[in-house]
């Protein structure tokens, strides 16, 4: 959902396709790029490159470059970019190349700031009306870099340079979180409050006024609200915190789960124990077992005794397992997995054939995919459950990476986080279809997980993720144990 909204935003801001390009033709191009066979893709790439000799506008070049990128025809894409940057040195293509290759590749904050200043000097924001979001992305990255360095003053300054209000509901969060991690609550609090207030503005709009921008802005509401209210709670300002939460639950009741922990903490601060207990019970029943110490204490406080607590606790867990089993039924399939042979981090081959006789969990992910990354502590815990089970193998399939040096980046990411994962690279294209494994499996978004039985049959397909470690452990256990059972198609 978030991906679709972002595409809509980019289209609206003019950063992907120009309006004057024939949209019907573009749709045909992308149909081929996303679903055509290798021959049709090659034919389209050649036709686009030949057609480019007649282009009279930068927008035409940008369209062709984007299609070539989707087709993964890097040689033609780079060649066309080189022509376009020479023809339009002050245009969007040259600017985007600078942002990608200079700003985002700068590792030190000082280098990032130098690149940003060069960016706004050579390509002033005023020269690209309607394209402010591109600059806001850069500003957010720069502000977060300063925050990580402990420079709250500059971090706050660059956040203040952002132009798009709808973006602040999400764009402010990484900077605020970096300041909070550094212990600078005083600087983080107003940042979270701004993000919260701006997101609330869009949430509160009448339904008919909620466009893609408004819907995207609302996505950051639970995170900014939770962070700001946690600060208030830490300061003992429980009643003020509760006012914000009550306001949030009226405007956006779907955010209740995201605010549940801080809501319970706030209710405890004003001695509303029964309400806090009910919220913690709901969280525990969804697999958030870290709430148990407080839940157990409240059970004793409210009942005057802990008698019956263990049975109550067991009932909640049984209900959770029952719900998980019902949930995974909707993801049940039975079909042969496509053959594959991919290289792991050591350069060794990992194939479907080599995994026969094992229940296999294929987890498709990328370093830039935050939902993927957030699920990894849970996936690590699930893998540890089966550490001594030689009949179960977890394979983390890295796919859709965007950088040329993705293998190095992936290795660094795994090493930095000390994940004991078997990682393979999904970069081997099928000679007939031109698709990598993710494409052969029909994956449209990541994270995506496939549970294979010992005969190489896909038994379950899941998309999306949760950061809830205990839930993931339980869900994976149910999926794996079910796949161990023999089933005939």
Automatic annotation (TrEMBL):
UniProt keyword annotation of Signal present: yes
PROSITE patterns membership: THIOREDOXIN_2 (PS51352)
Signal peptide, first to last residue: 1-18
Lineage, opening ranks: Bacteria, Pseudomonadati, Bacteroidota, Sphingobacteriia, Sphingobacteriales
Record's protein name: Thioredoxin domain-containing protein
Gene Ontology MF terms in the entry: antioxidant activity; oxidoreductase activity
InterPro entries, sorted: AhpC/TSA, Thioredoxin-like_sf, Thioredoxin_domain, Thioredoxin_ResA/DsbE_sf, TPR-like_helical_dom_sf
Keywords: Signal
Gene3D superfamilies per UniProt: Glutaredoxin, Tetratricopeptide repeat domain
GO biological process terms, semicolon-separated: response to stress
Residue ranges annotated for the Thioredoxin domain, each copy included: 331-485
């Amino acid at each position: 959902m978030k991906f679709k909204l972002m595409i809509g935003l980019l289209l609206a801001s003019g950063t992907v396709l120009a309006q004057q390009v024939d949209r019907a033709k573009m749709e045909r191009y992308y149909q081929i790029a996303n679903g055509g066979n290798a021959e049709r893709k090659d034919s389209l790439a050649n036709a686009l490159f030949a057609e480019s000799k007649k282009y009279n506008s930068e927008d035409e070049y940008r369209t062709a470059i984007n299609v070539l990128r989707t087709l993964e025809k890097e040689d033609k894409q780079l060649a066309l970019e080189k022509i376009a940057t020479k023809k339009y040195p002050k245009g969007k293509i040259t600017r985007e190349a600078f942002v990608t290759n200079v700003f985002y590749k700068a590792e030190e904050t000082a280098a990032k700031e130098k690149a940003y200043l060069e960016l706004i000097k050579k390509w002033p924001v005023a020269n690209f009306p309607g394209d402010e979001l591109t600059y806001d992305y850069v500003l957010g990255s720069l502000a977060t870099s300063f925050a990580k360095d402990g420079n709250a003053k500059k971090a706050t300054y660059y956040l203040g340079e952002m132009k798009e209000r709808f973006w602040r509901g999400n764009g402010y969060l990484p900077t605020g979180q970096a300041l909070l991690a550094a212990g600078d609550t005083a600087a983080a609090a107003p940042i979270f409050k701004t993000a919260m207030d701006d997101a609330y503005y869009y949430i509160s709009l009448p339904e008919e006024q909620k466009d893609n921008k408004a819907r995207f802005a609302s996505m950051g509401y639970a995170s900014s609200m939770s962070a700001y209210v946690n600060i208030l709670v830490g300061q003992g300002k429980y009643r003020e915190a509760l006012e914000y939460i009550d306001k949030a639950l009226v405007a956006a009741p779907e955010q209740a789960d995201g605010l549940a922990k801080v809501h319970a903490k706030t209710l405890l601060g004003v001695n509303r124990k029964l309400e806090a207990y009910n919220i913690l019970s709901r969280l525990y029943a969804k697999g958030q077992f870290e709430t148990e110490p407080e839940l157990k204490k409240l059970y004793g406080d409210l009942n005057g005794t802990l008698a019956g607590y263990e049975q109550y606790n067991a009932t909640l867990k049984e209900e959770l397992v029952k719900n998980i089993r019902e949930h995974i039924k909707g993801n049940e399939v039975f079909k042969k997995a496509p053959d594959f042979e991919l290289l792991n981090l050591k350069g060794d081959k990992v194939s479907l054939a080599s995994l026969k006789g094992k229940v296999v969990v294929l987890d498709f992910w990328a370093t830039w995919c935050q939902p993927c990354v957030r699920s990894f502590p849970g996936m690590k815990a699930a893998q540890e459950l089966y550490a001594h089970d030689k009949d179960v193998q977890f394979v983390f399939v890295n796919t859709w990476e965007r950088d040329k040096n993705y293998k190095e980046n992936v290795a660094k990411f795994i090493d930095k986080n000390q994940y004991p994962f078997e990682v393979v690279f999904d970069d081997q294209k099928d000679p007939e279809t031109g698709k990598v494994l993710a494409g052969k499996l029909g994956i449209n978004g990541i994270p995506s997980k496939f549970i294979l039985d010992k005969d190489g049959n896909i038994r379950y397909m899941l998309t999306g993720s949760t950061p809830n470690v205990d839930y993931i452990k339980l869900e994976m256990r149910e999926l794996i144990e079910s796949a161990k059972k023999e089933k005939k198609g």
